[in-house]
Design brief:
Number of helices: 5
Radius of gyration: 15 Å
CATH architecture: 3-Layer(aba) Sandwich
Shape: globular
Structural class: alpha+beta
CATH class: Alpha Beta
Number of domains: 1
């Protein structure tokens, strides 16, 4: 069922059947505060988004994953890679239900996504972007061992870009997974 697993998480491609979950996720203003996204209008809009998103997997060969808590099977949010045309690079992104914040889930899912990107997809470099005010997301990038790259603007807000290359990940990955 899952394409990737960690000690606590299962990650799989998003499907239109998950529309109720993603409707609820994006309905929390704190969850989408720094994303540039708003809530879906209704479940049909969430389903339409997820149906269109299937093209990302087909066209790019990868995309974001739904993230599940293995112990209960509950969806905790999403995480994964997506090619960003304006950057010319794959981007690591994550979004979790607020009641799952502070448990290391974004870091754990992010590590699995980086490992997948570098070791399975053979990517050379992955970036992550966050609005400068989003200290929680920036902290996740730092915990993953990503390095500050440069200032940016995202959705008309000051932002930062962090980066990691395959060689750096390869040196860090074993120690990183031992800590989880």
């Amino acid at each position: 069922m899952y394409e990737l697993t960690t000690a606590r998480l299962g990650l799989k491609r998003m499907t239109p059947d998950e529309a109720p979950v993603f409707l609820t996720l994006n309905a929390d203003p704190e969850v989408v505060k720094y994303t540039g996204d708003g809530p879906f209008a209704d479940e049909a809009a969430a389903r339409a988004f997820l149906e269109r998103y299937q093209e990302v997997y087909q066209n790019e060969g990868y995309g974001r994953f739904s993230v599940y808590w293995l112990e209960t099977g509950e969806c905790v949010g999403w995480c994964g890679l997506r090619y960003q045309t304006e950057l010319g690079l794959p981007d690591l992104g994550y979004r979790l239900f607020r009641h799952w914040w502070g448990r290391g889930i974004a870091t754990e899912a992010g590590a699995a996504s980086l490992d997948y990107g570098f070791r399975t997809l053979g990517l050379a470099r992955i970036v992550a972007r966050a609005m400068s005010e989003n200290v929680g997301s920036i902290r996740v990038m730092q915990k993953l061992g990503m390095r500050y790259w440069r200032e940016d603007v995202f959705e008309a807000h000051p932002a930062v870009l962090y980066e990691m290359d395959a060689a750096v990940w390869e040196k860090a990955r074993e120690n990183f997974f031992q800590k989880l």
